[in-house]
Amino acid sequence: MNKLKQIDAPMGLIMFFGPSILFVFLAFKTSDNFAGYIITSAICAVFGLIYIHTSLFGKDKILQKVADSIQLKQNSKILDVGCGHGAFMIKFENRINDIRKIVGIDIWNKRDQANNTLEKLFSIFDFPRLQ
To answer: What CA–CA distance (Å, rounded) separates 8 from 110?
Structure first.
């Protein structure tokens, strides 16, 4: 079960739905090229929906395939650079007997990752926090 079903980088949604709203506004504000603005708005909205789907579901499937394809030796060490919420590290939960250490490195910025905090990450993995 994925413990972290949430949208990555929610600011990315603005990149899709912001222009979509703008094009709808332009379609009704100007008299020329109504259909063009509506079509462009719909395309932006569709890409926004794809972004949401990939962030919530597609990424999880891809990460699981990658994790399953990695052949770990006994007492392996894993470094996850740009770990975000730790989704990739979570994929190794069921293989914890093969892993001696998992280290995740990221910039902890709530603006880039929704509700991204060290406390949340450590509560998910239930291991002590190193200073």
So the answer is: 11
> CA-CA distance, 121 to 110, in Å (whole number)?
13
Contact yes or no for 88/80 (Cβ under 8 A): yes
* CA pair distance 109, 8, nearest whole angstrom: 12
Q: What are the structure tokens assigned to 32, written together?
A: 């020329």
| Closest listed residue to residue 72, CA positions, set 45, 91, 51 | 91
**What mean pLDDT is reported for the chain?**
80
What sign for the dihedral angle of Cα 130, 102, 124, 107? positive
Residue with token string 């600011």:
11
In this predicted structure, the answer to whether residue 77 has a pLDDT above a threshold of 80 is yes
Q: Where are the beta strands (DSSP E) in the chain?
A: 76-81, 99-105
SS3 26: helix
d(CA 51, CA 54): 5
pLDDT of 131 reads 47
User: Rg (Cα) of the chain, in Å, rounded?
Assistant: 20
User: Does residue 31 or residue 22 have the better pLDDT?
Assistant: 22
